[in-house]
User: Fold these one by one.
Assistant:
Number 1:
Amino acid sequence: MKANVITFVAIIGLAVWLALHVSSVAWTPARIGGAVVAVFGLVFLLTARIQLGRSFSVGAQAKKLVTTGLYSRIRNPIYVFSAMFLGGVAIVIGHPMLLLLLCVLVPLQIFRARKEEQVLHEAFGEEYARYKAATWF
């Protein structure tokens, strides 16, 4: 439960901090597009976090197979939407290091997703295999 609260507060805190510091940005069409992507990513990231509930863990664990909400279409919506959020923020801020961070983050998320798949398959077997076949990433 503690990890749930900490990660949720961290995501909200980062979003608030960014919102307070974007007033100095020169708004171009690309940056507006980046902001739209970042907001979309943030909203769905928070939604996925809420929908995952107590099944959230920092390390790969098989507490419950969540297959509803965003998880009915995407197996790893937290990874997908956190990458969207970070990509959008990188465009808004216009700092290349954030794009470099994204280039490091995405392979790490893919690696973590594969590890989680192994744990979930061991715990839920055929149920997880059917779920995996019906969803993206």
Number 2:
Amino acid sequence: MRLSTKVRYGMRLMLELALNKDKGPVKLERVAQRQSIPLKYMRQIAYSLEAGGLLISVRGPGGGYILPRPPEEISLIEIIKSVAGSLSLVPCLDNPRYCERSSCCATRELWEEASSALKEIFEKKKLSDLVKRQLALGGV
């Protein structure tokens, strides 16, 4: 299983904003350049995060994006759900009608257990945990 590029880039965008939260709005162009992510793709990700309530767009000459809450209050699962919609490993966990075998599938229970474990990890971890880790690695 792999997390999508969109999710990984979304985390990097949120991390950049958290690292720069005291400097005012951050321009998306700056983040895209620093993170080597195409600007067009970064805009799509920002739109998803904004729709999920995780970014605020500030208009005007000094505009850009800011976080609506402190990094300590933003869980990583919120970021994933805003960008990807779900963290379920298989589609039948979100919609049992997806597969006619959902009600009698032994592997579905395994996928459900694994998905729950992942969700629990990402619910406990906060954006501030990523900030601390990034600072410990020496990068801003």
